[in-house]
Design brief:
Porin; 1 helix; elongated
Length: 235
């Protein structure tokens, strides 16, 4: 199912690159125009293990979107192809006791998950009195894991004794639990709000809710907030 959906949406977006849609008077977005998008993600994961509490991690995203007018002039279909970094981070300090000896510990772990995402958003736009446009958007997205990194540093201290360890590991996506860290495909829903300035600059704030379990043996889902800037070409 994922592969079929991926192929259909990918074909639609690529076709948009070679299409020329006749523009109607007064319609400020839609028209088949392409947009170049860049932004930042504040992402985390959810786990079914209560003892681990991931925090949000900063990542980047960039790619292209295409705008297609719909029958209702207030609606636009906006699919895209986006490289997006997701993941999470953990940092903790405290004390632990082992065989009657109390140690102080400190951990700092960052996990970056790189995805190729295909969002398909429906945009509702409303003209404001100042000539700009308010945008409400919602729609599904499909993600394919490209790889990632797990970087961390852990240290322990007891009296005059201290020890620290750092690591940098590669994260692999795939269906084999023994060979891969996470499943390749992600699926979710996105919602957001934005503004279109001067018919060309779209600023959006959105939230992505991962619905697919990407973990092997552990229930793991992606979550994230995205702040993006899209420059509409052809205006």
């Amino acid at each position: 199912m994922y592969k079929k959906f991926f192929s259909v949406v990918l074909a639609a977006v690529l076709t948009a690159s070679f299409m020329s849609v006749q523009k109607s008077y007064g319609q400020k977005i839609g028209n088949g125009d392409l947009g170049i998008r860049a932004g930042v993600n504040f992402s985390k994961i959810t786990l079914d293990r209560g003892e681990i509490s991931p925090k949000m991690k900063l990542g980047i995203q960039f790619g292209v979107v295409a705008n297609f007018p719909m029958k209702n002039e207030k609606l636009t279909l906006q699919p895209g192809i986006i490289f997006a970094q997701q993941g999470a981070k953990w940092d903790d300090t405290g004390k632990t006791t082992d065989r009657g000896v109390t140690y102080e510990y400190e951990t700092d772990i960052k996990m970056t998950l790189n995805y190729l995402q295909i969002p398909v958003n429906f945009l509702y736009h409303h003209d404001l009195n100042n000539g700009n446009i308010l945008i409400l958007q919602a729609g599904p997205y499909l993600g394919y894991g490209l790889g990632g990194k797990l970087k961390g540093e852990e240290s322990v201290k007891q009296g005059s004794y201290s020890n620290s360890e750092s690591y940098d590991e590669t994260i692999k996506f795939g269906g084999d639990q023994k060979k891969h860290d996470f499943k390749s495909f992600d699926l979710g829903l996105g919602i957001g709000v934005g503004l279109l300035f001067n018919e060309q600059i779209q600023v959006s704030l959105g939230y992505n809710l991962g619905l697919a379990d990407i973990g092997h043996g552990v229930d793991v889902k992606n979550r994230g907030i995205a702040l993006t800037l899209t420059y509409i070409l052809g205006k």
